[in-house]
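Work Package 3 (structural annotation) set out to generate three-dimensional models for the target panel prioritized at the project kickoff. During this period the team completed the workflow that converts sequence records into discrete structure tokens, so that structures can be stored uniformly alongside our sequence database. As a representative example, we reproduce one entry of 91 residues exactly as it appears in the project archive.
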Amino acid sequence: MATGQTVNLPVRNFLYTIDQIAFLLEVEEKTVKISYLHFEGRSTGVCPRDRMSARNISPKGVKPEWRILDIHFVRWMRLKGFKIYERGYVK
């Protein structure tokens, strides 16, 4: 491989916390919980298109620790009209 060629690397998944999403969207955590999230295993039915799917990553019997996968966050932002700029290569 010659120097200067583009190399596509696999994208790493990132799990956002509810407070990180609230900070990025400049809203309160309560607003994110009530209006933007579907809690897997707690909310009823299938996750609506206009909500992000949140998963509990803590073991059974421990206080829930909810995380939102970056692809769900990006999909939701695009649906709401946000412009997303991604970089997935190294030069």
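The chain has one domain: 14-83.
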